[in-house]
Specification:
This is Sigma-54-dependent Fis family transcriptional regulator. Pfam families: AAA_lid_14, HTH_8, Response_reg, Sigma54_activat. One of its GO terms (biological process) is phosphorelay signal transduction system. It is a single chain. Helix 3 links the parallel strand 3 and strand 4. The chain is α/β, with parallel strands linked by helices and 471 residues long. The chain has 4 domains: 118 residues, Response regulator (Rossmann fold, 3-Layer(aba) Sandwich), CATH 3.40.50.2300; 179 residues, P-loop containing nucleotide triphosphate hydrolases (Rossmann fold); 74 residues, Helicase, Ruva Protein, domain 3; 45 residues. It contains 19 helices and 14 strands. The N and C termini lie far apart (85 Å). Adenosine-5'-triphosphate binds next to helix 7 and helix 15.
Length: 471
């Protein structure tokens, strides 16, 4: 069996009409990239097929000679409860549909239903089965304790629970031949996760990373598939494609959300068929690399907008992790600060500087749109200009710049004051605002002033004035 079949388990189509079996297979392949299909015309053979093959999902007709669909449904529910069944029947009768669902069918479609709805139902069932399998794998890991290979994640510094859950998930799916999709904002560490997955996959070959953003379709094909000498004007030498470079290893395609539609079709074909043609060649080569893809885009949204092919999206998200941004795991900031201070100082041949106590606190007030990459760059800059024992806060204050420019969260009505019966006076509002900033900054005036968008001396003056008025 080819490792590129999708899904990883067989889908068994049972119907006594060969023409229907052919047309359903074609529909599933064309609209959803489903290739792991078995067909069966004789209902007496179903039991043996389920026992001998890795059947996850059955699409079952009801009216057949020999064993009826309802009898098969009962047998499957009793003897193979792990197998999911969707009934696709010529009968548009509510009572039959209800009876089938009671017997354990996952869904019921009439043969005349639109193709899209039927394919959608099949994809839902596949997703459910994939989640069940992942769940099973994950819970057995939880039961056996923590990570089996924590060393694979040594380069990813984190104390965040969601990140640790991602590590467990990655361990669970690392050996799967199906693609892994890693999403998350720019700079959150997607490439580091891809490298950890590669380490865990046990693949002997290298990890080859390709950034596909901005590649036009021809360059994309040339980069991935390579070309023969003379394939096009200027092709003076034969060139191996990145797929070949990554043989027995991992091909990491970064910025996959920026891929053009023609290139999406090429990638889908590669995943479906497990074969590709170098430009200028009519001899196919086999895909021998595991594929990991990453993007900072919301692929589901792109798919909904028609900018990303649905079949490719479903195929890619078989295994999916969403890496949280740094602002949602602020507990990582002091760890990353310490880690990068040591690393950068070492690379610059300097002694590791001591950060001021309030630095981590200052950094926690910032939203880090560039995530860990931005924090790393700030630390690099600060350590480069550093001379004395204690690290200066200046670089960080400059890097963070003006207070967060993201809009202030407002009440549902649109203005935090709109729900108040009596508006505070100007000085009352200022006092409350300053007091909140001081609390959030844990008493640190430099940080509080930054939160308020004023200078530290200006804040100090206000506080002094307020004290004098109290006295
Ligand atoms: N948790 C972490 N621990 C240590 N270093 C990290 C961590 N997360 C990210 N980095 C570092 O931050 C930088 C950005 O990480 P990476 O390239 O993996 O991000 P990315 O999500 O792939 O970004 P992009 O979407 O822009 O490609 C790298 O230098 C990486 O080593």
């Amino acid at each position: 069996m080819s490792q590129n079949l999708y899904p990883p388990f067989c889908i068994l189509l049972v119907d006594d009409e060969p023409a229907w079996l052919r047309s359903l297979s074609l529909t599933l392949e064309r609209s959803a990239g489903i290739t792991n299909i078995l067909t069966c015309q004789d209902s007496r053979e179903v039991k043996d097929i389920i026992t001998s093959r890795n059947v996850g999902l059955i699409l079952l007709d009801l009216t057949m000679p020999h064993v009826s669909g309802e009898d098969l449904l009962t047998m499957i529910a009793e003897q193979h409860p792990e197998t999911t069944t969707i009934v696709i029947s010529g009968m548009n009768q509510l009572e039959t549909a209800v009876r089938c669902m009671r017997l354990g069918a996952f869904d019921y479609f009439v043969k005349t239903v639109e193709e899209d709805r039927l394919v959608g139902g099949v994809l839902r069932a596949i997703r459910m089965l994939e989640l069940q399998r992942e769940n099973h794998e994950m819970s057995s890991r939880v039961l056996t304790g923590s990570l089996r290979h924590p060393e694979a994640f040594a380069a990813i510094i984190t104390a965040n629970q969601a990140m640790h859950a991602i590590f467990s998930y990655v361990e669970a799916v690392a050996v799967s031949p199906q693609p892994l999709l890693i999403t998350g904002e720019s700079g959150v560490g997607k490439e580091l996760l891809a490298r950890a997955t590669h380490l865990l996959s046990g693949c002997a070959g290298p990890l080859v990373a390709v950034n596909v953003a901005g590649l036009d379709d021809t360059v994309f094909a040339d980069t991935l598939f390579g070309h023969l000498k003379g394939a096009f004007t200027g092709a003076d030498h034969q060139r191996r494609g990145m797929i070949e470079e990554a043989a027995d290893g991992t091909l990491f395609l970064d910025e996959i959300g920026d891929l053009s539609i023609p290139s999406q079709i090429k990638l889908l074909r590669l995943l479906q068929e497990g074969e590709y043609f170098p430009l200028g060649s009519d001899r196919p080569k086999r895909l021998k690399a595991r594929i990991i893809v990453a993007t900072h885009h919301d692929l589901a949204q792109k798919e909904a907008d028609g900018r990303f092919r649905r079949d490719l999206f479903y195929r890619l998200r078989t295994h999916h992790v969403q890496v949280p941004p740094l602002r949602e795991r602020k507990e990582d900031i002091p760890l990353l600060l310490d880690y990068f201070l040591g690393k950068v100082a070492h690379s610059l041949g300097k002694k590791k500087p001591t950060p001021p106590r309030e630095l981590a606190q200052l950094l926690a007030t910032y939203s880090f749109p560039g995530n860990v990459r931005e924090l790393k760059a700030m630390i690099y800059d600060a350590v480069s200009v550093h001379r004395d024992h204690i690290l200066s806060m200046d670089t960080f204050l400059r890097g963070i710049g003006q207070p967060d420019s993201s809009p202030v969260a407002t009440a549902p009505e649109g203005n935090p004051f709109s729900c108040l019966e009596r508006l505070p006076s100007f000085s009352e509002a200022t006092e409350l605002l300053v007091s909140e900033a001081i609390t959030r900054a844990k008493g640190n005036q430099t940080i509080a002033a930054r939160l308020l968008g004023i200078s530290q001396p200006a804040l100090s003056k206000r506080l002094k004035l307020a004290r004098e008025q109290e006295e």
